[in-house]
Design goal:
Layout: E1 3-4, E2 10-13, E3 22-26, E4 30-32, E5 41-43, H1 45-62, E6 74-77, E7 80-99, E8 102-114, E9 119-123, H2 137-141
Antiparallel strand pairs: 1-2, 2-5, 3-4, 6-7, 7-8, 8-9
Length: 155
């Protein structure tokens, strides 16, 4: 039976600690194996590229800019998850630049209203913490199954 992580990516026993999660002692981490972070398992070589792409996309989904928010998203406000009820791009400029004597607008402010009726104004490029989910299926589909080695029979 294949071992998988919580997202469905295949795992193999760590070659460094042989699945124990422990390796030689050091003052910083005790005996925690650096190969598997103490779990005893690591992502298979065939799945590593897909898993790295998934983690990158997942982290990006968790830290969007305000301009990328949608109604219904949950973002962290004062250590509490708040649901976005309304988003309005304002006419108010949050940053601009002057190039060759010409003023160029870079970003605007956005008003974000939450379910509790609180309204906050953010620059459009400000990063926020969003409660995000990401379907790993497309990433899992890109994993190439390892080629099975053929055993040749000798006469």
């Amino acid at each position: 039976m294949e071992t998988i992580n919580k997202y469905g990516f295949p795992l193999e026993v760590c070659g460094r600690c042989h699945g124990t999660g422990n390796y030689s002692y050091n003052e910083v981490d005790g005996t925690t194996c650096y190969g598997c972070s103490g779990s005893g398992f690591k992502i298979t070589k065939s799945a590593q590229k897909a898993y790295d792409a998934f983690l990158t996309a997942y982290k990006k989904a968790q830290r969007p800019q305000v301009k990328d928010l949608q109604v219904g998203d949950y973002i962290a406000r004062k250590n509490v998850w708040c649901r976005v009820a309304r988003i309005i791009k304002t006419d108010e400029v949050s940053s601009w630049s002057v190039v060759d004597g010409v003023e160029r607008i870079s970003t605007y402010f956005y008003e974000v209203e939450f379910d509790n009726s609180e309204v906050r104004t953010f620059p459009e490029n400000q990063l926020v913490k969003r409660k995000a989910t990401l379907d790993p299926t497309p990433f899992l589909a890109s994993i190439k199954s390892p080629k099975k080695s053929k055993v040749q029979e000798e006469d």
